[in-house]
Amino acid sequence: MTFNPIPCHEALQPFIRNYWVLSAQCTAHGTQQIFSNGAASLHFYLSQAVKLEDMPHTPVTSEPQNQRTSQPHTSTPSEPQSLKYRTALNRHDIGCMGVITEEGPLEIFGVEFVPFCARMFFRIDDTRPHLTPEDTGDDEFVELSNAIHSASNHEERKTLLDDFFCKRLSEIPADDINLERMSDVFHQIVPTDGSVAHPPIGHEDFTPTDLASTACLSQKQFTRVFNKYVGMNPKTYLRLLRFNKALMELKNNATHSKEDSTSMTEVAWRCGYYDLAHMISDFRSLSGYSPSEMLAAGAKLTETFGSQFSGLMKKKIKIENVI
Is the Cα torsion angle 236, 277, 252, 200 positive or negative in sign? Predict the structure, then answer.
């Protein structure tokens, strides 16, 4: 399995982290498991239409790669048997998403949004976790999907996406005050060094109250605005942020010598967990692994919040000579 990021147009980088291509050869009917990072994603399934489901929180047995793993899949009565996706706009709430594939090649062209930015480009008020372009009632999105699938190479797909998103960016009102507020909030909690920001008074994570204060909104107003832009409440997102921070800490810790490494308890404390037991419980709930099981499996983790993240918004959005 290979995972390759592709830079988007520079005008889009405050809002879209990158495009990416995942390629694999599936030897049997199975499920590619994707851990949630709190951001909506857009997937174009190029080689085969797939089924999607929200995965049960049970440990997997094969080696995870780039936060994606394969495991045998057994259908349940609640699983839709007929709906397959060629293109899906996915909401990532708590848990894992399963991409159910058939034997043969698998190739996905994806878009990784900055967490609060997918709703800048799409109307996704629908509460379903996976939406087709037709579900959104967006004719331009339908046309984009068809063009992406008809394109002859990934460079052409990148150009199509750059043109689509830059056009939509130019249509966003420059005086969207709530977008500015969300930018300020995310610049505070996801700094450019990729670490989790903490209040100066202690090691605990920011609370929803802290974030509401940054946005200059009441707790109730902030929760409503946050839900609109991110698709989940602030408490849930902070939980996912802490989980992904711990993933990176464990990855980095595993590469150090025994003398330089930190204990699992120290990792839990530094990532804002009350104690190690709470971190283990959170890992099992969100990924199906305990931290030690994930390390033993040799997990290769992608960096969710890294140095290329930018939450800074321009007061005036102006796109010239792009389309």
Answer: positive
Tell me how far apart the alpha carbons of residues 125 and 246 are, in angstroms, rounded to a whole number: 31
Beta bridge partners of 43: 88, 110
At 214, list the tokens.
Answer: 């940054």
Q: How far is CA 114 from the centre of its chain?
A: 8
Between β-strands 51-55 and 130-131, what pairing exists: parallel, antiparallel or unpaired? unpaired
User: What are the residues whose beta carbons fall under 8 Å from the beta carbon of 37, sequence distance 6 or more?
Assistant: 67, 92, 115, 240, 244, 304, 305
Q: What is the pLDDT of residues 207-249, one digit of tens each?
A: 888 889 989 999 999 999 998 888 888 888 888 888 878 887 8
Residue 47 is encoded by which pair of tokens? 């080689």
Q: Which helix (H) or strand (E) holds 243?
A: helix 234-254
Tokens 């489901």 belong to: 53
Residue 46 near residue 140, CB atoms below 8 Å: no
CA distance 126 to 141: 15
pLDDT digits (tens, 9 = 90+) for 93-104: 666 677 788 888
What is the rounded distance in angstroms from the CA atom of residue 309 to the CA atom of residue 125? 25
User: What's the predicted TM-score (pTM) here?
Assistant: 0.72
Task: Confirm if 111 and 16 have CB atoms less than 8 A apart.
Answer: yes
Using alpha carbons only, how large is the chain's radius of gyration in Å?
20
